[in-house]
Write a structure and sequence with these properties.
about 325 residues, alpha+beta, Glutamine Phosphoribosylpyrophosphate, subunit 1, domain 1, nine-stranded mixed β-sheet, Peptidase_T2, EC 3.5.1.1, asparaginase activity, Ntn_hydrolases_N, hydrolase
């Protein structure tokens, strides 16, 4: 039977690879999503998700996460949660509740504490140094405070044709306390229907939430389009429309997976992602916007990977 998984950014690769062994053994897509995203949340050098994530303007790591079961449409989400080790696990548990399934701020953090989720100070020394450096740059050079907003998003398909999706992020670096982007919002940051497929988004949440693009991609797949055609048709015309109407547009990248294990990607920036299925071991790819509202996708180079590892672990001046 077919199984598959796709995740945003280079940072998805290790978690996705680990979760694929669960799918290979006949495990559920819901478990695979949590396994994969927890791996990303726990790695301190991925500075836009979980432990080591970049803080808000006051130096606090506020995180957003969401989980969706494509079989039942059950959704759980948290926004502005802090001092909790794995927000994706909290979001998944909340998806079991018909009421109170989307919690924010102190309410989300208290729920996690009262329900036995592991508490942790998510601000690492490295992330604090990056924050202090940015504060100094703002004060001395009058630079924009905002730099970095990458979400890890995953979509999975298991051997029983069950699908799930999840997202996790520490959000926009130096954001105002309480700011939330698209990642925890159904239809915008994520959406999945096991009868069709799923999609997740990463980029500037304030602009992504203007389009509800994850739902639109799933809708287009449901009309018969391939995941790649659905991504291209949903993303690129909306980017142009937003430029025309709003005057500017932030970074957009979306991934999709259908219930046949086929995937697609669309982006308006250089964008890495990881994907694998029952016929192909997980790999990392590079996507770029191509001509005529298409996407160019190539395997990542070894040189790029080496440079990436150096960059994320470079000492902070």
């Amino acid at each position: 039977m077919t199984y598959a998984m796709i995740g945003t950014w280079r940072m998805a690769y290790e978690g996705l690879s680990k979760a694929m062994t669960t799918l290979e053994a006949g495990g559920k897509s819901t478990d695979a999503i949590e396994i994969a995203i927890k791996e990303v949340e726990d790695y301190p050098f991925f500075k836009s998700v979980g432990y080591g994530g970049l803080p808000n303007a006051q130096g606090l790591v506020e995180m957003d996460a969401a989980f969706m079961d494509g079989n039942t449409f059950a959704i759980g989400a948290v926004a502005g949660i802090s001092d909790v080790k794995n927000p994706i696990s909290v979001a998944r548990q909340l998806s079991n509740d018909h009421f109170n399934s989307f919690l924010v701020g102190a309410g989300a953090s208290q729920y996690a504490m009262f329900n036995g989720f592991e508490a942790r100070n998510m601000l690492t020394e490295r992330a604090h140094k990056l924050w202090a450096k940015r504060v100094q740059e703002i004060n001395e050079k009058n630079l924009s405070p905002y730099d970095g907003h990458d979400t890890v998003g995953m979509v999975s398909l298991d051997q029983d044709a069950g699908m799930a999706a999840g997202t996790s992020t520490s959000g926009l670096f130096m954001k105002k306390p309480g700011r939330t982007g698209d990642s925890a919002l159904s239809g915008s940051g994520f959406y999945v229907d096991s009868d069709i497929g799923g999609a997740t988004a990463t980029g500037l949440g304030e602009d992504l939430m203007k389009g509800c693009l994850s739902y639109e991609i799933v809708r287009l797949m449901g009309s018969g389009l391939s995941p790649q055609a659905a991504c291209d048709q949903a993303v690129y015309p909306f980017v142009e429309k937003l430029k025309k109407r709003y005057g500017k547009v932030g970074e957009f990248s979306l991934i999709a997976l259908n219930n046949q294990g086929e995937w697609g990607v669309a982006t308006n920036v250089e964008f890495t992602f990881a994907a694998g299925n029952d016929e192909q071991t997980p790999q990392i790819y590079m996507a770029n916007p191509g001509p005529d509202q298409t996407t160019i996708i190539e395997p990542i180079s070894e040189a790029w990977l080496i440079a990436y590892e150096k960059r994320i672990k470079a000492p902070i001046d």
